[in-house]
Amino acid sequence: MADSINRRWLLAQRPSGNLKDSDFELVREAIPTPGAGEFVVKVTHLSFDPTQRGWLAADSYLPAVKIGEVVRAGGAGEVVASNNPKFPVGAKVQGAFGWQDYCLTDGGGFWPCATLHPGMSAEHALGIFGTTGLTAYFGLRDVGQPKTGDVVLISGAAGATGSVVGQIAKAMGCTAIGIAGGKTKCDWVVETAGFDACIDYKSEPVAKRIKELAPKGVNVVFENVGGDILDAALANLAQRARVVLCGGISSYNAASAAEIQGLKNYMALTVTRSRMEGFIVLDYAPRFAEGVKALADWMAAGAIKSIEDVQEGLENAPATLRRLFEGKNFGKQLLRL
Ligand SMILES: NC(=O)c1ccc[n+]([C@@H]2O[C@H](COP(=O)([O-])OP(=O)(O)OC[C@H]3O[C@@H](n4cnc5c(N)ncnc54)[C@H](OP(=O)(O)O)[C@@H]3O)[C@@H](O)[C@H]2O)c1
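Above: query sequence and NAP SMILES. Below: predicted holo structure tokens.
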């Protein structure tokens, strides 16, 4: 190992409201030595996901990160020291390595380490073939159940998941309408991600624009944002629509439940006999190989592409997480170490 220091970002305090530098502390420690059954990964890439904000705040579908623990994040890297025959030195791997240069692990836990498929880049492993692409695939296909000719409305359309959902919707013969913040992003959603249209929620009346673009209503809503944007979608449902509650990033920085915007138009679900259903991608783990194959086949056919936004340097980890909440990322947010 060439370096002798392991830089690690620890959680210094539970964040309240927008993330601050003081929520985190950068420490320098010796690179760990593997014990029996353990190995050390030199982390090369980290994945940034809005759900990380939730892991810092409270227990949810995973236990909260403890104060003083390394900040949890998915990552990719290479094994540089090993006492584990399943993960020998030189193996390219992915797992929950966290915000640090080197990760000591036995490869197990609630997020087991896995070897990268031969030839697969770290960017693709963490993005299109990682939880991002798989969230788009299983959320749209299994929960949204789109049929050819359906209109699919996607919020957070320029983000990691949303940009893939729209591409899959197009590949399945649907019309894809995005919602994103700002003209530059909306142009990108149409020109780069290939959606049919995109509504700028920062300057356009969202419910009115959905009605203009989908006068017969939307058949599938893939919801990443929540709040007012979900309400605008609910006001425009077709009969027997499916609302996929993937996420609600507009509320993740709320300091208390009182700050979270409730829904006004939920009775539209009754009137249109529609269904709103949440899901967690980890529940689909036994079927991940199916999702990866479907995404790879679409990519090989040129129907979808992987779009990544790669920042540089472990020292920029807190700022990179904030990018998601400042709307700065286009596609999958990654950090190269
Ligand atoms: N259910 C699951 O298993 C699962 C798995 C993965 C992700 N998710 C959820 O899916 C959603 C998207 O995740 P992602 O990883 O693909 O991230 P992402 O879309 O790349 O997230 C960042 C984007 O969210 C938008 N945003 C941020 N704050 C906002 C606000 N207050 N109002 C409206 N838009 C806001 C910004 O886009 P604009 O510039 O357009 O505002 C930003 O670029 C998140 O809600 C996440 O929690 C769920």
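The mean pLDDT is 96.
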